Amino acid sequence: MDWDDAYANAAYIEGADAYPDRWAKEAANYRNESAARVDVAYGAGAREVYDLMLPEGTPKGLLVFVHGGYWLRFDKSFWSAFAQGARACGWAVAMPSYDLAPDVRISEITQQIAAAITHAAGEVAGPIVLAGHSAGGHLVARAVCSGVLPEDVAARVVRSVPISPVSDLRPLMQTSMNAELKLDEAECFAESPALLSPRDDVEVTVVVGAAERPVFLDQAEWLSEAWGCDRIVMGGKHHFDVIDALADADSDLCRMLFAG
């Protein structure tokens, strides 16, 4: 099996090259419109920062959205427009950046995201919902495994929604990406949500696009089966547009995220 091809998303999405520029432009416009608090530090590093976007009035709670890019690419500045749905539902949104491989290992990124969630939880009261896309889906699944978040913060997390997550890292050892990811068997077992267990007090729903690469459909199914949680397959959606519904407060995805 050609593992590089199996995990190549852009090669199978029409107009894929245009997505990052569109995301970045829409995100910049939305940050200006929403008067976002940018570059809130949650750690000492230059990338250990998040943007915080508040709704009108007192927030009902906090959504933390963690971006993807195979732990190798992107930062928080591309995704701000996807906070629209949450803010329209009355929720605050924190969008963190994190250090990227090969400068850090995935296990270190897990700890950075835990620190970002913890810091943002100190800024916004109420329940916490986590959502993440692709590598970010891996990270928000990891965040609800035992021992990752401080107990007082973990107790506030009511829901985690990994979108198109990488739940089992072991296949990535067979890709050329691993020259930068530096995954070994020990780290794969320690950092793969599908090989771990979630906390009992958090609701998890896995989301994936029906038009995604077969391995991402597999990865979503593996997590759903391992954790005994719901899996939603979004018709017609591929790996890049599966997150579009986050920007629409009336979407099924936002209704599910902010239910209760």
Write a brief structural summary.
This protein is α/β, with parallel strands linked by helices. It is built from 10 helices and 8 strands.
Give descriptors for this structure.
alpha/beta
DSSP helix count?
Answer: 10
Structural class: alpha/beta
State the distance separating the first and last CA atoms. 44 Å
Beta strands, count:
8
Quote the average pLDDT: 97
Proportion of beta-strand residues = 15-25%
Largest sheet: 8 strands, mixed
Q: Extract low-pLDDT stretches.
A: none
The ordered string of helix (H) and strand (E) elements is HHEEEHEHEHHEHHEHEH
Q: How would you write the strand order of the largest sheet?
A: 1-2-4-3-5-6-7-8
Radius of gyration: 17 Å
- Label the overall shape: globular
Helix content: 25-40%
Summarize the structure in words.
The protein has an 8-stranded mixed sheet. The longest helix is centred in the middle third of the chain and has 18 residues, at 106-123. It has helices spanning 3-6, 19-34, 84-88, 106-123, 135-142, 151-154, 178-181, 185-191, 214-227, 252-257; strands at residues 37-41, 49-53, 62-66, 92-96, 128-133, 157-163, 203-209, 230-234. 33% of the residues lie in helices and 17% in strands. The chain is built from 10 helices and 8 strands. The protein is globular and about 55 Å long. By secondary structure, the protein is an alpha/beta fold.
Topology:
Blueprint: H1 3-6, H2 19-34, E1 37-41, E2 49-53, E3 62-66, H3 84-88, E4 92-96, H4 106-123, E5 128-133, H5 135-142, H6 151-154, E6 157-163, H7 178-181, H8 185-191, E7 203-209, H9 214-227, E8 230-234, H10 252-257
Parallel strand pairs: 3-4, 3-5, 5-6, 6-7, 7-8
Antiparallel strand pairs: 1-2, 2-4
